[in-house]
Amino acid sequence: MYDYLIRNGVPKESLAVYNIATPARYVAGGGGYLTSANDELITRVRELAAATGAKEPLPSNILITEREKKDKEYYGHSLSEVYLAGASGRIVSDINSALTNLKDGKGSVVVEGGCFNAPSETLSYNTKKGFFNVVDPLAHRAYSSAGKTATAVATAIQYTVKGVGSVAQNGFSYVTDFLSSKTTYASDQSHTNIVSQNQGGAAVLAVVNDTPSGNVIITEPTEQVAVETQQLAPVSAPETPVSPQPIQEQAPAPEPAPTTPTEVAPTPSSGGGASPTQESNDLTPGFGGGGGGGASVVEGDTFAPEKPTITTPEDLAAVLDSTDVTIGGEAEAEAAIEFRHGSGGSTTTIDTSANSSGKWSLSVTLTEGANGIEVVAIDGSGNRSNATRTALEVRLAPDAPAVTTPANASTFATSTITFGGTGTGTISTDFSSTTSSTDVDGNWQMSLSEFSEGTTTLSFYNTDDEGRTSEATTLSVYVDTTAPAVTLTVLECLNSLSTDFCLAGDTTLNLAWNSSGSTYSVIKDGVVVENLSGSATTLLVTDEASTTIAVVAYDGAGNAATSTEQEVYVYQKPVAISEVAWMGTEASAEDEWMEVYNRTPLTIDLSSLSIVSADGDVEFALSGTLGGGEYQLIERDDDTAVSSQPAGTIASFSLDDSGEELRLVHGLGTATTTLDQTPEVATCSGWCAGLLSEMRSMERADFDADGSLESSWWSNDGYDYAYYNRDASSNVIYGTPRTPNNRNWPGYGYFCEPYADPYEENGYYDTNSGRCYYLYRDLDKPLQTMLFHGTVGSSTRVTGDSVSKGIKRFKTNNAVSGLVNGDDLFVLLFSTETSGIDEINTFETYFETGSSTLPHDNYKVIQWKYGTAP
Asked: What is the DSSP letter of 522?
């Protein structure tokens, strides 16, 4: 019909064709069309065309959601129930766009009785009509079921091949040509009025079918008719034919020369549609679906260029997986190209141009979903081609899944690891065939097993419901199921003070271990007391007690191994410096000696002990072992300084008479622990005890006290306790080598066994027998001693004796008869200045009766009471 009208004088710019639900392979005049993807009739035609090798109908360019019962014959093909009900807005928009582009033509019109004559029913026309009757049974109600349709189609093909000869070679092109002669085919009625509307003096054939008379009715454009873009209600076929509108009278036009109608096959248009989508009814947002606009008129060249083609992408119906797209095609050489694309009501225009070969290309960023495309070629005279329209569907792959656990490069001590994160759809991995589906909140989790030792790199993918797979999220994990080895060393045990077990001399222990672990826990008596990453530490333990120690090593994967437990017995300061004869002996000042004491009940191995001075002038190692409670004598250079005692260690050293700070240290390999020491030189401006003038040694006053304190030392008290200790010249040694230190007795005093120290003034002492001792170091002349029962001036002498300087030992009892608890007793010590008997009698009389006068005051009195204090 389009060709007929054009050949009979209707200008092209005054006509536009818009097809709905068409099985045609093109739209006459390059017009628009609308075909739903779920139109079963069009799908059946498409299948038949493919089977016969004929050209297929235009691709569907919309998906209209379900509007009718699915069991209805040729579901999806109803104009009123499907197209008008589901896409009226699109139809109105497309027609409105076509109206806008029409121009007022001045062509001649052949009219008979006010109407165009219908085209003659030639063989070609009838053949096309026969195909149409077969493929669209809804239009003519020839068949009512798919089975009948299949039979009719097969019969029609056989008939056509036999009856029309070479014409049948075009197959379904006849169907499409036939339908292209109608501007719109209404699928649910056999006849529809031709609607004529004006827009700028132009007419649009909106709906076309045969009238009862077989003629096409066109009203003369007389006024402007606005086309409203609105939702159309479903329409149905009128029960009676509509009478044709009369044509207004006008001056008769010259009769044109007779022409013979010629069958002209329309040139196929490239106005194909895009693949259907359920997200939108309109795959060309921003554009109508109708024919293109006319060319601009420029004096000298009024011919519009051919519509440009789109050759890239090659398959316009294919769904794209990227928004960055290169689009290209062909147009008139060196024509300007006006390219528009739009989505969601937003339109972007890009200008480019074709090269001398007519090739054009550009890069564009589309949006996800349906993107309308329109391309217009503009020649050098400004003439615009009809628009080439299509739609491109972009469906991006989903985002790569997020793996929130574990962290990348995590280490595990197990070959089974649980992974989790967020995503959409189905999560898969290249490690195994295991998959996981995301929950309603987008979370996923999967457990993977059989990881090998070492590092494994694996990727995770997100696949959506349409099978699109994301880029990979890659991470690595490290599996280590081998526990680290660990060997614990307690330095004090390597250098134990005992040969039988680990004996340490200080409550601070030095621990070290060898291990491939990364973190460690120190365990004391079964309890973790420290966590650290280093391989050494110190540990505080209890004095005079055993402590069990172990170290647990952890590697980066969490594997753990525990060292062998070690039991350490600690005795704080087990060996102490007990005496220093820094002044030498009466025989020689170089016969210096010193002594150490074992404070414990244990046998001590002295081989790891040394004595050093703070200034480094003295340094030597001890040797041998030392039993519990025993003393070891250390002599300088040889074993002659103390002739009466054997030396345990002989060493080369020299002590400064002005003072030394000596230290007893426990060697621990590269470290040492100081067990004991003498005071710093500055503490006492020299040695803190000992007398050079009297050759009295410096002795330890308290082994439990800190040896660095002045109060921990005193000088030998000058009493010859061990009267057998002699120097190299057999002189008395005022010291206590290898024997208990002196008791620091006073210059005078008295006591009897079992007491070991002098009586205190007026103290109670329950003794009246045994050996008794007189002390009189401070009295430097021959002495007399007397024991009295009573008080001074009222007493009775019990016994008396003369003694020499030093200490007096009575080997007989000083028994006093008749004593009762609380009786007073006292001892008199006095020098005999004249050594005469009168002097002795005078002292005795005075202390018994108090009647005489003492000859001098060089005497001492010690008073006490017998028995026990009340």
From this structure: E
Domains of the chain, residue spans:
2-205, 309-394, 402-479, 492-570, 575-715, 748-866
What are the tens digits of pLDDT across the range 399-438?
999 999 999 999 898 999 999 999 999 999 999 999 999 9
What class has domain 575-715?
A: mainly beta
Provide the CATH number for the domain formed by 748-866 in this structure.
Answer: 2.60.40
Q: What is the pLDDT of residues 76-121, one digit of tens each?
A: 888 877 888 888 888 888 888 888 778 765 544 444 444 455 555 5
CA distance 23 to 138: 13
Distance CA 401, CA 405 (A): 12
Residues of the chain with pLDDT under 50: 107-115, 123-124, 127-128, 130-298, 808-812
Identify whether the C-beta of residue 391 lies closer than 8 Å to the C-beta of residue 374: no
Fold held by 492-570: Immunoglobulin-like (2.60.40)
Tokens 């008979």, located at residue: 112
Report the run of H or E that residue 151 belongs to, with start and end.
Answer: helix 146-164
Domain 402-479 fold is Immunoglobulin-like (2.60.40)
CB 321 within 8 A of CB 381: no
Torsion of CA 134, 139, 141, 142, to 10 degrees: -20
Contact indicator for 411, 554 with CB cutoff of 8 Å? no
What CA–CA distance (Å, rounded) separates 194 from 211?
Answer: 8
Please tell me if the domain spanning 492-570 has the same topology as the one spanning 748-866: yes
Q: Is the CATH code 2.60.40.10 the one for domain 309-394?
A: yes
